[in-house]
Amino acid sequence: MTRYIVFDVETPNHNNDRMSAIGITVIEDGSIVDNYYSLVNPETSFDYFNVQLTGIDEDMVEDAPTFPELWQEIEPLMSSGLLVAHNAVFDMNVLKKCLRYYDIVWKPYVRYTCTVLMGRSLYPRISHKLNDMCSFFDIPLDHHKADSDSNACAEILLRYLENGVQVNRFIRTCSLNK
After folding, report:
1. Tens digits of residue pLDDT in 95-121
2. Which of 100, 125, 140, 178 has the fewest CB atoms nearer than 10 Å to its CB?
3. β-strands 109-114, 21-28: how paired?
């Protein structure tokens, strides 16, 4: 596969079942070719911790699209390549919970990969937190901002691809069925 859909989500509270923002960075044939960002109205409450972490609060998302509105726009993009995230289990679970909450049928399962898993195989003796990997590779990062995080993850993936990582070894499947 030569098209990767790298994404990152921010959440409004500890339930991690809704999005307050999403960033998407597209890699095609070894280069970043597109970026997408949107706030999301999660239609739920915000925790103080998440507001402090992400800088996103209720007022900021008041006029933002809800997940179903956003999904109509991003589904073609999300369907156009292999999904990638840093600590992908988290982002995939948030996506799955949003789809389920709003009764949106997408696919029975989706294939994805994780840059943390790749990194641990390439660099087993260092921390694989996003900010630590960005420091290691000298990649700019405004942490916990979905667009910056997805772009940083894409840059990390490009470094791994340059180092010859075999992405197929790290592909996982996430069931989207209820």
Report:
1. 999 999 999 999 999 999 999 999 999
2. 125
3. unpaired
Contacts of 168 (CB under 8 A, 6+ apart): none
Report the C-alpha gap between 169 and 54 in whole angstroms. Answer: 32
- Residue spans of alpha helices (H) in 34-140: 48-54, 58-61, 67-78, 88-101, 115-122, 130-137
Sort residue 135 into left (φ over 0), alpha (ψ -120 to 50) or beta: alpha
Structure tokens given for 165: 């990582």
37-74 CB burial, b ≥16 within 10 A, e <16: bbbbbbeeebeeebbeebebeeebbeebbbbeebbeeb
Q: What is the pTM of this model?
A: 0.96
Mean pLDDT is lowest, of 34-38, 57-61, 160-164, for 160-164
User: What is the identity of the amino acid at 66?
Assistant: T
φ, ψ (nearest 5 deg) of residue 55? 80, 5
Q: Which pair of tokens denotes residue 154?
A: 């894409």
Instruction: Compute the distance between CA of residue 52 and CA of residue 54 in angstroms, rounded to an integer.
Output: 6
Best CA proximity match to 103, nearest among 177, 53, 24: 177
CA distance 5 to 77: 8
Dihedral sign, CA of 11, 161, 134, 136? positive
